[in-house]
Amino acid sequence: MKNIMRPTRRSILRAGAASAAVLAMPAYLRAQSQSVKIGILQPVTGALAQDGEFGRMGAEMAIKEINDSGGLKGLGGAKLEMVFGDARSNPEAGTQEVEKMQADGVAAIVGGFASPICLAATQAAARYDLPYIVDVGVSDPIVQRGLKNTFRFAPGFGIVTGFALDNLVKLNDGAGKPAKTVVLVHEDGLFGSGLAKLMQTELPKRGFEILETIAHPTPARDMSNVALRIRSLNPDLVIPSSYYGEFVLLARTMQQQRIRPKGVYAVLNGAASNYRFVKEFPEAANGIMDCNHWYDPRNPKALELKKQVEAQGKVFAYNVPLNYSCVKLLADAINRAGSADRAKIIEALNTSTFKDHIMPYGETKFVNGQNMGAAPVNTQVQGNDIKVIFPDTFADAKPQFPVTG
Amino acid sequence: MTFRDIVPIAVVIALLAFVPAFVTANTVLNFLVFTLIIALAAQGWNILGGFGGQFSFGHAAFFGTGAYAAALLQVRFGMNPWVAFVIGAVAGAAVGWMIGYLSFRSGLRGSYFALVTLAFAEVLRILANAATFTGGAAGVLIKLDVRPDNFQFESRGAFFWIALALVGAVLVLTRWIERSRFGAQLVAVRENEAAAKALGVDTLRVKLGAITASGAVTAAAGGLYAQYFLYVDANIAYGTWISVEAILAPIVGGLGTVFGPLVGAVALHGLGEITKLAAGSVPGIDLMVFGGLLVAAVAFAPQGILGLLRRPGQSKGAARHA
């Protein structure tokens, strides 16, 4: 028995030859059908795991679709090969994954989601002139550092807030100016407090009176005090900027305590335009407006994708169409570059006029890495669905304001 | 401290210094730089927690001070990053002294001291998150300008050597503490503070010395972090993650030992990274290994990994002198 277990010289040789053959196999297969590797970076563990999964799903769907329809046309039908990296919801892990993708020889990277991850990851990629398409990361310095490799397809903070303020005035004017007083509720992180500061200077200029600004940490487990304060102030409008959990909590607490302002107008909110929230708490969600990334509800391709995602029992969050579009944008650039050469891809992105996306954007045009065609939309929860109310060109419903009931 | 005390440190550092010569993959170097930064922060914690027995849960206060000082001094005042880095370490020492003075003078020990340090770190996090000077929640972005005199390097290897040199310097410092009269007094405070006091040890002075050195070392780690990733915000700099990392590495490696924090940091992060490479695309698998190793270390190696290596029958003190 012992003799059988003990490795002989011959068995070692045999095992060695077998493993060499196994190792050599992928290289052989690769030589058969050339593929282009692209890195997909998303936080799929840690605090941002939910968003990261949405982003990954969108990217995967685009890659599958491109490969199923004959691969990259500009490269003789070469397939896209995904190299996935988990950014673990922190910038260090994001940087480490970029290094791995570089070692794996990717042609470009898509994703990042959170601003701190995007800031670190784009910088790491810049060392190798590795093209990087940011999916969400709204912090404007991401595209203001002069990094030649960095492109952001979606609108940044400046574009979104400008749009949100203009449409708030439009909404209020259209309804005969019922709203005069506002309470701001915001999470105390990067986007919440940045937004609150901006609102504090901009809203009074537009004729609104801010009664109070209430900050809360993330995570927060109880919103009763915030809700009670809102009740005692009795504002016409509540403008919340929070992540998913906290906003759901606030909306539910307000519903339980029958606090009904004339409108809840969220900006870049984690829940206000999320189907999960609408499905799980339809009454609390009803009437809530948001200004956020969203798909184009008039685009048949977007609706088809939504159907596919929902058929799997998953939520069609904005990250899905956004990452889907970002991968398509990259594929278009690779096709036009006619090569997986990084410098050529960057050049192709700089001259991109990509239109085949499913976002409510115009033609893609990058100026210093920011897509100037990008814009957010205003959504409102109406009849257990999320409808686009602004801009008119993409709207599929009329705004309900002031919200009654 | 004799020449023989330094030899093991010199050998380890010299061996590690050759890594960039053999490993050109930036993936590995990037991972090692991050691990060394964690090791440095943990070495800082080990001086106070491992040798002095004062368990701090808020070393983020020092890490963050070092990181913010390094970033803000160059971004806001145009200071040379090398100078800013040194001032950051000094600022960390000052914060350490201040927290120590306030809490040790009031006789805070054990869990009370741990809670107070945690509170200080949280207060600093909230302040940094709110103040305009620190960039608020948007944090501070250091401009990418790759020049050696700007503390930014083309190759990851250069940064690796700097981090390694700092870790090596702190290894020597820790060895000196271990061998010195100050170190003996510190261990006496850890083992029995009342007895140490009765024997004439000025416990307040000893503990203040330890927390000041500890603050400086952990702040240096923060400064390195800022200079390497070129971005800090309140949650990165003063977040609880770094306080936890700084505690875990020495616990796993060996509390109150010279090499403990380095061994612990390399073991925890190295094993996680290797699992990630081996397991491929299963997200979170490295975190599971991280957790598993932690449970195993606490359950089977209460003296840490270095404790396991000790020969049976050898006393704790002898092991440290080995």
UniProtKB/TrEMBL annotation, chain A:
Domain Leucine-binding protein, first and last residues per copy: 35-371
Alphabetized InterPro entries for the sequence: BCAA_transport, Leu-bd, Leu_Ile_Val-bd, Peripla_BP_I, TAT_signal
Q: Does the keyword Cell wall biogenesis/degradation apply?
A: no
CDD domains reported for this sequence: PBP1_ABC_ligand_binding-like
Q: Which UniProt keywords apply?
A: Amino-acid transport, Signal, Transport
**Is Aminoacyl-tRNA synthetase included in the keywords of this UniProt record?**
no
SUPFAM superfamilies in UniProt: Periplasmic binding protein-like I (SSF53822)
**Which residues constitute the signal peptide according to the record?**
1-20
Task: Give the UniProt record's GO annotations in the biological process aspect.
Answer: amino acid transport
One Pfam family named in its UniProt record: Peripla_BP_6
Q: Which domain of life is it from?
A: Bacteria
- Family membership, please give it: Belongs to the leucine-binding protein family.
Q: What is this protein called?
A: Branched-chain amino acid transport system substrate-binding protein
Native source organism of the sequence: Microvirga lupini
From TrEMBL, chain B:
Give the species. Microvirga lupini
Regions crossing the membrane: 6-24, 57-75, 82-104, 124-146, 158-177, 208-230, 242-267, 287-309
- Source species taxonomy: Bacteria, Pseudomonadati, Pseudomonadota, Alphaproteobacteria, Hyphomicrobiales
The alphabetical list of record keywords is:
Cell membrane, Membrane, Transmembrane, Transmembrane helix
Identify a single GO molecular function assigned to this protein. branched-chain amino acid transmembrane transporter activity
- Say yes or no: keyword Nucleotide-binding present: no
Q: Which cellular components does GO assign to this protein?
A: plasma membrane
Q: Where in the cell is it found?
A: Cell membrane
- InterPro entries per record: ABC_transp_permease, LivM-like
Q: Which domain of life is it from?
A: Bacteria
Q: Membrane topology per the record? A: Multi-pass membrane protein
What is this protein called in UniProt?
Branched-chain amino acid transport system permease protein
